[in-house]
Amino acid sequence: MLQVGLPPERRSEVVPVLAENRSPVLVELNLTRDAETEQTRADFLQLYRATFPHLPEPLPVAASYVRCVLSPPEIQRLLELDRDGTPTVFRVWPDYTLDAHIDRSAATIKADAVLRAYAATGQGIVWAVADSGVDAQHPHFADGTLTGPTAGLHRDFTALVTGGPQPDPPESPLTDPAGHGTHVAGIIAGGLPARVPPLIGQVELTGGGLPEWHTRTLDAGRALTGIAPQAGLVSLKVLAERGPGLVTSSSAVIQALYYIREKVNTGGRLLVIHGVNLSLGCAWDAREYACGQSPLCREVNLLAASGVVVVVSAGNGGFAGRLPGEGGADNRAVLATITDPGNADGAITVGSTHRDRPHEYGVTYSSSKGPTLDGRLKPDLLAPGERITSCASGELRTQLATLFPPDADPATLPTYVEQSGTSMAAPHVSGAIAAFLSVRQEFVGRPREIKELFCANATSLGRDRYLEGHGLLDLMRVMSNV
């Protein structure tokens, strides 16, 4: 149960503290009793409304979770009243806040060679991107990446983040004011036609050490395509702008994963969405629950058990800065910094390495490191995550304004930009698995075997196992050894 006596300074580290000391919480319903799920939820709602008639209505998140906004004394009161009858509440959890965590990098994981040798384009495979939205107007997705069979599947879950009404119009998942989700999606799938010259922006330092935007051209023989260019994408918008950055909540991501499992894939009986990319995560308090056993991690495991591949970024918390004291030029890394839901056993958790020279530069210094706090090996794989070129939209596109041709409509320009982090590494793995499944469809619905196969055929960079996991993703080796 949530420790209702948590001091405010500690509670604010893991969940936002709102007016009157209230915070969002996830109420896990007591489904062990002899009652149907709907009846248990109805009994809980009846108790809640009678106890707090003036508070906002609880929001169902998944079959076993309801989101409420309560203060510690209100939680205590609710639990005491619930125990007077047949309990409807099993546990109360914090609704944690989560943060948002390709021309050159495709060759690093041998995706370009696999495309030529096996025609592994991702055709027929559908991947969900749970992120800040995907800009459907970007030319990278003009060839049906977000339309066709996936057109009616895009959803927006950010009402659980902002506390506002359900976003309207329903097309909002296909917009991306921040640009993070569009950049991630462009690494997985889609591509710019060879006849269209891209506008690629990159930052270079001036003589005075100040950043300055410049354009660059594609290397000879390179193309700006996703790892699985013909895969279909589904945009599940869970990240919203709040303050200086992008955030989401456990409840929003859980609702998105539940939507895939029960609403789209009908409990695994019909796989319409084959995988999901989660380039997001949060720090977590080990005193609240066992590692990998949070509601979000459990929902990831349920989704994987239903046949969906879940790829998660490891996080960017592996560097702690310089040692304090005199002569503190020594830097330090931190082990056991994998974020949730990357701690989930069913997830393929991805760390970051250099985009085209991984054996020389090894694991990115900031990439979160294992093991998990209960002793499991994480991350599972490494993939390129440094200065990855992909679609620029929203705020990322705005940064390139000085490079735009005169009188050009920015919304229609084929703009690309470099971004870094494990957020960029995870979609390399998502795209690689989508490409693999398009030619080896006997593995569809078998995520644990896929994880074992990709881990067994990864290439070691000769680094510590808690930094590199099983090693660098090698798609050609996977294809050759099936």
The count of domains is 2
* DSSP helical segment count: 15
Note poorly predicted spans.
Answer: 1-14
CATH superfamily of the largest domain: Peptidase S8/S53 domain
* Distance between the ends: 45 Å
Category from helices, strands and their pairing: alpha/beta
Largest sheet: 7 strands, parallel
Mean pLDDT: 89
What CATH calls the topology of the largest domain is Rossmann fold
The radius of gyration over CA amounts to 22 Å
Shape: globular
CATH architectural label of the largest domain: 3-Layer(aba) Sandwich
Q: Strands of the largest sheet, in order across it?
A: 7-10-6-13-15-18-19
CATH level 1 name of the largest domain:
Alpha Beta
Helix content: 25-40%
Q: Would you report the number of β strands?
A: 21
Percent of residues in β-strands: 15-25%
